[in-house]
Amino acid sequence: MSLKSLLIYLPAVMLCMGCQYTLSAQTNPDGKLRIIAFGAHPDDAELKAGGVATMWAAQGHKVKFVAMTNGDIGHFKEAGAPLANRRRAEVAECARIFGIETEVLDIHDGELMPTMENRRKVADLIRDWQADIVLCHRPYDYHPDHRYTGELVQDAAVVVVAPFFSTNTDPTKKNPVFMFYSDGFKKPYPFDPAIVVDIGSVAENKWDCIGAMPSQFADEHSWQASYRADIPKDPEGRKARILELVQRSNEAVADQYRDKLIELYGEEKGKSVKYAEAFELCQYGTQLSVEQLKALFPGF
Question: What would be the CATH architecture of the domain defined by 3-199+278-296?
Answer without folding.
Answer: 3-Layer(aba) Sandwich (3.40)
